[in-house]
Amino acid sequence: MTPTFHVHHLGLADYAAAWAYQERLMAESLALKAANRDRPAPEQAVLPNYLLTVEHPPVYTLGKSGKATNLLLDDDGLARVGATFVSVNRGGDITFHGPGALVVYPILDLDRFFTDIHRYLRTLEEAVIRVLAHYGLRAGRISGLTGVWLDFADGAPNPRKICAMGVKASRWITMHGLSLNVNTDLAYFGHIIPCGIDDKAVTSMQAELGREVPFDEVRDRLIAELAEQFGARIVSEEAVRLLG
User: Fold this and answer.
1) What structural domains does the chain harbor?
2) What Cα–Cα distance (Å) separates residue 123 from each residue in 109, 114, 192?
3) Does residue 59 register a pLDDT over 80?
4) Main-chain phi, psi angles of 102, to 5 degrees
5) pLDDT tens digit string along 134-190?
């Protein structure tokens, strides 16, 4: 049976509210998975898979393996630039989310796809790489550095990160995900050591193309490409407004 995706567009949503929504969907999936252990195979429930798309007000998030010193602002500095700071339970270091950054949170049951986190991250990267190619941007990977880069080849003079990633999985249910800089205000990255990497730059589609890029168009292309890469079918798509 072909796996299916339910797509929820959260619009511009507070980071904490979106995190809580992810946690809720993950908890529901984990409960279904636990209940399936006590059911014969024909009676087992099929766990839903979700793709959540969202923009956040300016926020810096720090993963479990990150260093707080990679945030170069104190509380007064955060207030001055109009941003907040959140420590989160994903992998990876510090990054920035803000208007113009396309964030996608897949809540997937990897038992329906493949139980390999390394392959999962590479699959997310591949979807982004293919979307960027549509806009004439040649993107790829740098060995040992999760995410998507421009000028990524060995010896390239100016490698630039355009998409950051950080995920969490529990019993092969995923949460958190990726953040693609579409029309992001890159000045915010000057207040952190992005992803803990101090010798490489950050960029956006807008900066590379010299024009604002239609956000919803990129969003829709990425959703379609994620479905393609995971061999899934989109069965529903709806706008969801979160409180908080």
Assistant:
1) 4-36+47-239 (3.30.930.10)
2) 14, 11, 27
3) yes
4) -85, 110
5) 999 999 999 999 999 999 998 888 999 999 999 999 999 999 999 999 999 999 999
> What percent of the chain has pLDDT above 90?
89
> Is residue 195 annotated as part of the catalytic site, yes or no?
yes
Q: Which one from 195, 202, 205, 218 is the annotated catalytic residue?
A: 195
Q: Give the count of beta carbons closer than 10 Å to the beta carbon of residue 91.
A: 18
Which DSSP string corresponds to the chain? Answer: ---EEEEEEEEE--HHHHHHHHHHHHHHHHHHHHHHTTS-GGGPPPPP-EEEEEE-SSEEEE-TT--GGGB---HHHHHHHT-EEEE-SSSS-EEEE-TTEEEEEEE-BGGGT-S-HHHHHHHHHHHHHHHHHHTT--EEEETTEEEEEES-STT-S--EEEEEEEEEEETTEEEEEEEEESS--GGGGGGB-GGG-SSSEE--HHHHHTS---HHHHHHHHHHHHHHHHT-EEEEEEE-----
Mean pLDDT, range 37-48, rounded to an integer? 85
Sheet holding 59-62, edge to edge: 84-87, 59-62, 94-97
Would you state the pLDDT for residue 129? Answer: 98
Residue 22: pLDDT band by 50, 70, 90 thresholds? very high
